[in-house]
Amino acid sequence: MSDDPIRLVTIGRILRRRWRLLAVLAVVGALAGYGTSLLYPPRYTASASVLLPGQWEERALLTQAEIATSSAVADRAAAALGWRGVSGRELHNRVSAKAADGNIIKISGTADTPERAQRLSDQVAQQFVTFAARIAGAGGDSTDPDAATGPEALRQKVAEAGRRITDLANSANPGQTVEGVQARTELEKLRTGLEEAIKKLDQAGPAANKAGMVVMGPAARPAGAAPPTRTQLIAAGALLFFLLAVVGHLIAARVNRRLRTEAEIAAALGSVVLGTVEVVAERSAHGPEGRGARARIRRLLGVDTRWEIPVPPASGDEAGRRIRCRRVCARLRDQLPADGCLLVVVPDGDEIARRAAGQLVAEAGGDSLLRVVGVPVSQPMVPDRDTESGALVVLSAGSRTAEELAGIAEACADGGHEVVGIVLAGPVRARARRSAGHSPDNGHAPDNATGALAVRGHAAGGSV
């Protein structure tokens, strides 16, 4: 199952043959998602936008977004809202902010109702504007009076220094000595530098303060819950259980160790394959029969049949199937001694093999008896040898593992029976309508079915 085409075919086979089970598991997953939604009530998210005027670099915008979600802003918002049992630490986990295009900080708040989410985002946005203005020194509630007057006092001192420089330049005995000219030049350079510094201070003042942040209106009340919503949880639960069921089927198919080829089956039983008996497949042919509520549930879900078995090939008419069965009987006669009967061993639960054994009994004829016994696979036990000349194992391909077949072979050896041959039961689809009065294909042979089998030759255990 390592090739992709085979994998796709396998998934399609799962969907066709186990769709009832997959549907039930999807419903169970949906119920699990619904239960999860009850444990986690819906959340609503509202967003408020704050405009930052002026020119801002990307790193500066990211810094402002971090300030909007800081604990200082969250604590002020919690105090302003006054919600019982809601602290600033909890609000900090409910608030997020990001920088958008156009120097906009988008602040989002999450709460259990749309109204609370709207109030939360509006309050956080307002507290962010107030806190940012206070940091920049433009807030009206600043407690440091020197912070606002410092730049203006500096300008006054620079202007006074410029006037003194002018006075010194005028009194420096202009034009008479070289030292006087150099002094005037140095003083002019100093005054020019001070004037340029004042210009830069005036230009940097508004950009540094970044005053005038504006909340762009109240946050819109959310119309729906934030993801994951209840519908999303239900859909996710159904999809998760469905995928887990499909993956479980694929894993089971990958670790399946049932033998499918004739060579593997013959090596496990230590004998030869005499041929294949075709059996018209029925719905319950690949699964064990049972009664009661558990068996009815298995049939309802479709788990009473094996899904990994390919669709049985189409067979010819009933006469063709009987001819193939006679040929298998003829090969069997060549492998048995002239006298004695044969013990037909059928693993329990293999309905296809049990019906194939019934066809062999019906097609056999002669004086010797053919005895059919069912053998449990978990603890195989075969009757002790009486008049039998050997054991014939009848089973369907892909139904047993090598260990199980080895256990059947050991049980035959413990009972004194030599495995003289193997007959494979192959399910087929009938093309023509079967006759109601014919018994080989219609009926099921009981476990103690017997029939005459004419034998000849003395090459028991030989090859065909």
In short:
The protein is an alpha/beta fold.
Can you describe this structure?
The longest helix is centred in the middle third of the chain and has 32 residues, at 178-209. The chain has 464 residues and is of the alpha/beta class. The protein has helices at residues 4-17, 19-39, 58-68, 71-81, 88-94, 114-136, 145-170, 178-209, 230-254, 262-269, 293-301, 318-333, 351-363, 402-414, 439-442; strands at 44-51, 95-100, 104-111, 214-215, 273-280, 341-347, 368-375, 388-396, 419-428, 450-453. It has 3 domains: 4-136, no CATH class; 145-215; 262-453, no CATH class. The radius of gyration is 46 Å and the shape is elongated. The two termini are 33 Å apart. The strands form 2 sheets. Strands 5-9-8-6-7-10 form a 6-stranded mixed β-sheet, with helices on both faces. Strands 2-3-1-4 form a 4-stranded antiparallel β-sheet. The protein is 50% helix and 15% strand. The protein contains 15 helices and 10 strands. Mean pLDDT is 78; it is low at 138-148, 206-211 and 434-464. Belongs to the CpsC/CapA family. It holds the Pfam family Wzz. The chain crosses the membrane at residues 21-40, 233-252. Keywords: Cell membrane, Membrane, Transmembrane, Transmembrane helix. Its main location: membrane.
